Amino acid sequence: MKGFAPIPGKGESPVLTVREVAQYLRVHPTTVYRLLKGHKLPAFQVGSDWRFNREEIRRWIMNQQRSG
Fold it and tell me: What angle do helix axes 54-67 and 18-25 make, rounded to 10 degrees?
């Protein structure tokens, strides 16, 4: 997607970590956690760690661009 940072050294893994989503969105990981706390980002937990489906994040971005 134009305007978003590629995830260095990663292929197209369907599942992303908080750090990878932060890099992708070009925000600090704290911002990702804030969005999670507000139930603003689509995510799921594996134990105590958060994970994100790459396609759902892309759809979330598109929805944010349309509504913004």
Answer: 40
pLDDT single digits (tens) 37-46: 999 999 999 9
Does 21 fall in a domain? yes
Q: Rounded to a whole number, what is the distance in angstroms from the first to the last CA of the chain?
A: 17
Range of the domain at 23: 15-67
Q: Which of 37, 39, 10 is nearest to 24 (CA)?
A: 10
Count of domains for the chain: 1
Residue 5 reports pLDDT greater than 80: no
* Burial class of residue 65 in the structure, from the number of CB atoms within 10 Å of its CB (0-12 exposed, 13-18 middle, 19+ buried): exposed
